[in-house]
Batch of 2 targets.
Target 1
Amino acid sequence: MLSLIGQRLLQSAVTVAILSFAAYALIGLMPGDPIDLAIAGDPRLSAEDAARLRALHGLDQPLVSRYLAWAAGALQGQFGFSRLFAAPAHEVLGNALLNSLALLLPTTILSALIGVTLGILAARRPRGALDYTVNAIAFAGISMPSFWLGILLIILFAVTLGWLPAGGPPDQPGLAAWLTHLALPGLTLTVLGLASYARQTRAAMIDALRNLYIRTARAKGAPERRVILNHALPNASIPIITVAGLDFATLVSGALIVEAVFAWPGMGKLIYDAILGNDYNLALLALMLTAIVTLLANLLADLAQIAIDPRLRS
Amino acid sequence: MSSRALARFLAHGAGAISAVILLALALAALSAPLVAHAMGHDPFTPDLFNRLQPPSATHPLGTDELGRDLLLRLLYGARVSLTVGLAAALASAAIGLAIGLAAAWFGGLIDAVLMRLADGLIALPALPLLIVLAAVDPGQLGLPRDVAALDLIRIVVIIAIFGWVKVARITRGAALSILRMDYARAAIALGASTPRLLWRHVAPNLAAHVAVATTLTVGNVILVESVLSFLGLGIQPPTPSWGNMLANAQELVFAAPMAAVWPGLAIFITVVATNFAGDALADALDPRAELSRT
């Protein structure tokens, strides 16, 4: 078990290292380096000034040595400054992360609870009315562009009814402002998120309920509640945990599309702005954080599956 | 597809309806220039005296913020979105097939490296990486900039870089089990060459799995394309795609809410239809489905 964790951690570290170099190189391929931007901003800069600036920022060095310098700093906890926001990269990141968590933590928990419940209810009577309804919701949820659902909700609640703001961060302090601004993006994410939970839970529960041990449990008189929750659900939980692991990762990477639709200043928007704005330090820090959390979440999900299913322990 | 498989496909109600819908969409997309000619509008030329018109006889769905006919832009958008969907799904399938076969046939180190690469691509958050790839400047790679067709090719390439994993895994798994079958071992024993073995014995038995996965990928690709175009990283205006039409419409959602409904509905219907068609195809190509239904 321990050696498995160690091996996976090592693999993840290698993946992160490769990815950080790939991201560094790719961002270098984007139009406009910082000095180009400086020249565009101040036409009086001469070619010699530009060359001196390039040398000052180390931009005249080859890509690999620039990357190594960045990596050495990052490993010591020095992530550099964000050019776009003119502040230390980790501070900029911290704010966006808090905004993303405020939006994503409640919606992730809600969509998991509702989705799993719907999936269980649907699986109890396959081809029943409820099953068809849940199936339709799940199918619609995975087939719908998330930004379209967001726009439809804006049209309904902000344009037509005028009940809720169409987007943006809360304009005044207080819980009420937060809740009204979180309502529409939260609803969008919950509906889309519960679709995959419901789909996976339904399929896994239908499979689990076919097993002979379910018949045994019913034959010895276990109440239906116990049969479902204690006998079937643990056996159906592997795919649900996989979905939860993927979901957990998006807590950090943010929900770019929904954040873009509702102008919510979270991690998704930050990563997007940083990459397109050529803000190396910020983009790399955000990308690395996302990658590390994603890999750790996958590892945790695998470990949880091993803890639940003894058959995986060989 | 054999006639029995075709019968099974058509017996699958939702699948048959979906296939008809997809065919109709493809025909509508193909006939877009004819419709434009018949209606007498040009979907690319702004007509500032007719901005944001409500639906009328001359403009069945109204006009956008530059006075262009929405129905026509929707039809031209279908050409882009469906082309990207099909091309990227086929490219993903081709790469996946090659990588999956290579992993299964060579085994050992090659297998391990290819499959870890696949794991890595699945495990990583796709959207930030898609953005990085989409933001790469083609000029620095020695490619021409600002060519409309290049947008299309570029987005297909980007999606295919991420899209091959599913087909590769399915191919590898199926190919490994086929290579263990007696007929494959007999072919090896009789001295069949590697290409012949893979082409004559392995590939035909993979076709069903790959066809299903590819059909399901088309829907997914259309979603990804719409997301990238919505974010301004995909198909660039004035070429319409369903994604960039939605991005446009969102800015004007208070002035013309319905303009945001149609492109999304088009994406939604197309993706639902490809998903149903994929499921129906899976049933139709699986001979055991017929046995289990009776």
Target 2
Amino acid sequence: MSTDWDVAVVGAGVAGLTAAREAAEAGLRVVAYDRMAPGGQLVNLTSVHDHPRPGEVAESAGLVSRLVAEAEAAGVVMAFDEVTRVRPGPPARLETSEGAVTAGAVVVATGLGAGRLGLPGEEQLVGRGISTCAGCDGPLFRGRPVAVVGDDEWTAEEALELAEVASAVTVLVPGEPRWNDDRARRLAAAERVEVLTGASVTALRGEGLLAGVVVATPGGERELAVDGLFPYVGRRGPGGLVEEVPADDAGRLRADGERTAAGTVLVAGDARSGAVQSVTAAVDDGAAAGEAAVAVLRTAAGEASAAGLRTAAGPGLRIVDPTYGVPADEAEGAVAVGGGADWTEVALFSNSKPNATELLRGVGGRLQEHWALPELGFASKPNASAAADKDVIDWLSQRYKMVLVAVGD
Amino acid sequence: MELEKRGVVAPLLVTSTFLPLVEAQAKARRVTPRVIVVPHPVGGLNEQELVERIEAAAGALLPLADAAREGQ
């Protein structure tokens, strides 16, 4: 059976990168898809608690760097396309934003979507008071009251991080907390944190900007004035992405271990129904899924064919760009200078995070003065978690010699 | 990073917290980015704090931009 890839991994977070590395180290041709960038949920965390061992703390960005480096060293190809559909086959067929590809086995490691309450007006307030990243957006709420909604370890960590900047943090737990005793102690010791159990948000207040929430508690309904709301409930798995694979109520794929009902499709990390949501568990899950993918291929092709695959495969990273496909070999990695424009053509490109545009305009203004530029172009993407629009990139690259980009805050 | 690959000089303003992540992404994309690091965070700063970030970033950008222009 000829396929584009031996193993395709959907999602390049902790579980996905680990699975991809495991399969690549077995000599298989492995591609790992992520529509944005590698790192998954770690991108939204500044630190990871209880990793690599209980009681220890790891810097999330460093962890992402290591996972990417290890996958790269094993020969994993990163592809920044969005996978929109998986048909198990065999061979498995993946519909992506750049066309269809086939694979002998697929590991689904998409994780879960952002937390949502499912209330009217919620989407309009995302980025205008509603956030799911305390590390990114917490400083926006310095000295102001916020609420956090959820019951798990992540909720507790985000609440503790917010307590360092916010004037008050109300943790709204829909049922009973599921966080461990250590976090319970830390929350209890935090002066500005109040935990309300049996509390759920029933309405949002505010026009254009969040001004408060309505909270239903066992004692009745009450208004809570908050400027920030961080929901960690209602996170959905990739249910519907894969044909023939059932999902639970939260959209997480049902599986026996890492194996789904479809023989060619495995699932790893938070995308799996019943998964323990921790980095350590995701690493273990990813490794098991990678091993299972190798076993799937060996079973399908027999040991002799698997040995053949091993010979055919080789290390080396190719980048499949989300928009522009595979670059020519000679151009790969090149950082050339010289678009069609001249040096009077300079633009700013903002990711629209708070103050990103102001920072860009300030710094750009200094360059404009320094080079006596007649004007500065400007473009932005609507939010930091969306990929840049292809047309905007086309326009910037054709029109400008230099583009100052605000990418990370 | 895609802009750099297309021949556009594209300095990236990155806060210190996200620098390792940007470096990881650059490595995955086989690009050596021109990075200007500013202290984290940028969001939530008052006017004076933002001015300080702008001055620091401009101090790094101007020589980088001059070098890119002269190097062509």
